[in-house]
């Protein structure tokens, strides 16, 4: 899995784009580390872009939920954007669609922080 991060300095928002698979076998630890590192730098608002995520398993779903919890506990907000139909279905099966704020695009997600 590849993760790209864009830090928007004028507002404390991290845009994190996940590419590939968020699974036990494919680098889920990197996602956890990026969240923890960003929080330690004082960023508390996150946009998690799933446009290029092809698969998520239960480990990946748990990591998204753990990130959501850490961010909320830090007083921040997490918005998920652009999941494919397959990823949306996975989030629906695990009932995480009711937990996360999910929007269609990065621009919509950024608008949630205004």
Describe what you observe in this structure.
By secondary structure, the protein is an alpha/beta fold. It has one domain: STAS domain (Transcription Regulator spoIIAA, 2-Layer Sandwich), CATH 3.30.750. 39% of the residues lie in helices and 32% in strands. The chain contains four helices and five strands, in the order E-E-H-E-H-E-H-E-H. Strands 1-2-3-4-5 form a five-stranded mixed beta sheet. Helix 1 runs parallel beside helix 2. The longest helix is centred in the middle third of the chain and has 16 residues. It is globular. The model has no long low-confidence stretch (mean pLDDT 89).
Keywords:
five-stranded mixed sheet; alpha/beta; Transcription Regulator spoIIAA; 4 helices; 39% helix; 114 residues; globular
Secondary structure layout plus pairing:
Layout: E1 2-8, E2 13-22, H1 28-40, E3 45-56, H2 58-73, E4 77-81, H3 85-93, E5 101-103, H4 106-111
Parallel strand pairs: 2-3, 3-4, 4-5
Antiparallel strand pairs: 1-2
Helix pairs in contact: 1-2
Kindly, what is the distance between the CA atoms of the first and last residues, rounded to a whole number of angstroms? 30 Å
What is the β-strand count?
5
- Strand order across the largest sheet: 1-2-3-4-5
Structural class designation:
alpha/beta
Average the pLDDT over all residues and give the rounded result. Answer: 89
Text of the CATH class:
Alpha Beta
Q: What is the fold named in CATH at topology level? A: Transcription Regulator spoIIAA
Helix-strand string: EEHEHEHEH
* Domains (count): 1
The shape is: globular
Largest sheet: 5 strands, mixed
Strand content: 25-35%
Oligomer: single chain
The percent of residues in helical segments reads 25-40%
CATH architecture: 2-Layer Sandwich
Number of helices: 4
Low-confidence stretches: none
